[in-house]
Amino acid sequence: MNTVIGSVQTDLTRRRALTLVASGATALASFPALVRAERASVRIAASPAATQAEAYYAEQLGIFKQAGISTTLSTASRGAETLAGIARGDIDVAHATPQGIANAVIHNIPLKIFAAGAIYVEPAAVGLYVTKDSPMKGAADLVNATIAVNSLNDSQSLGVWAWMSDNHVDPTTVKIIEIPFSSMAAALKRKTVVACCLVEPYATEAKDDIRVVPGVYASLGHHWALGVWYARADYVRNNSTLIKQLTAALYTTGKRVNANAASVEQLLVTHSKLELATVRSIIKPVWAEKWERSNIEPQLQMAAKFKLISRPVPYEEVAAV
User: Fold this and answer.
1) Closest CA to 17 of 109, 149, 114
2) DSSP characters over 186-208
3) What is the per-residue pLDDT across 273-299, written as a single tens digit (0 to 9) for each?
4) Is 33 exposed, middle or buried (0-12, 13-18, 19+ CB in 10 A)?
5) Residue 67, C-beta contacts closer than 8 angstroms, at least 6 positions apart
6) Residue 32: which residues within 8 A CB-CB, separation 6 or more?
């Protein structure tokens, strides 16, 4: 089953999400009972981006079913929505960035990462884009500029700041605002922003009007997790068998899709609601096939360095592995 998370279906407005983050432990006390491992059932949420399609592939390819897992999939446009769903008990497992998870933990919402999703490798399925006629050549051109990201305070912003810093440009001089991926190309065309962070398939959808700024997100490394799968800490603890089954199914899916990305093109058409020709042209995401600490820990350290999070969050505090 596929559903949509939003203000109508689950009342998960951005304001509500931020309220839940701030309320932390107080809100957790009233959450509904957890799904138990013996039920082998899990409610999962992720965005329609190609870089978060892994669970959808696992369901449609029958991999979850083969693992004995019954799933209900929901879509959400931003990490704040999935966080609110996890906190409310509407969702069991969701996809977000390591920085987003660390920020929630800082605000007394105990979450644990149990698997990595898509991995940043070159050519990358994420990048900083400008219009084709943009005069932008380097990091110095972002001084006093406004750029857009889909979600604030995660790797989308962090990569830009690190790139600016690497090029000896003060990262505090750029203004970052939040715009949905689906609206970014139009914002670039209107000159509302001078650059934006886009992932596939949205980048390819707008390819006639935009170009990528090389090397921006390589500032975070050449092999790091674009996203991770997480749940509440007590859910992970009380459903250890289910989490192991789910993790194995996700990595099995990653291996299968990495080996034959063309085999899921039609599935991505349905998932993203884009034309097949667009889907066939995208830079295909590469999926994690196993847990690697090095895909997570450096991001947490860099988030603290650039004060994306208010205090350092040790790897052990967020990782269930």
Assistant:
1) 109
2) HHHHTTS-SEEEEETTHHHHTTT
3) 889 999 999 999 999 999 999 999 999
4) exposed
5) 245, 246, 248, 249, 252
6) 89
| Distance, CA of 218 to CA of 254 (rounded, Å) | 22
Q: What digits encode the pLDDT tens for the residues 220-252?
A: 999 999 999 999 999 999 999 999 999 999 999
* 3-state SS, residue 231: strand
Which has the closest alpha carbon to 167: 212, 194, 136? 136
Residue 198 near residue 129, CB atoms below 8 Å: yes
Please, what is the Cα angle at 123 between 119 and 221, to 5 degrees? 55
Helix (H, G, I), strand (E, B) or coil at 109: coil
> Are 283 and 249 within one domain?
yes
- What token pair was written down for 82? 């999935």
Which residue range is the domain that position 86 belongs to? 2-120+225-318
Taken in order 56, 62, 66, 69, the sign of the CA dihedral is positive
Short-list 108, 110, 174, CA closest to 141: 174
Q: Are 210 and 249 part of one and the same domain?
A: no
Half-sphere exposure of 229 (CA within 13 A, CB side): 31
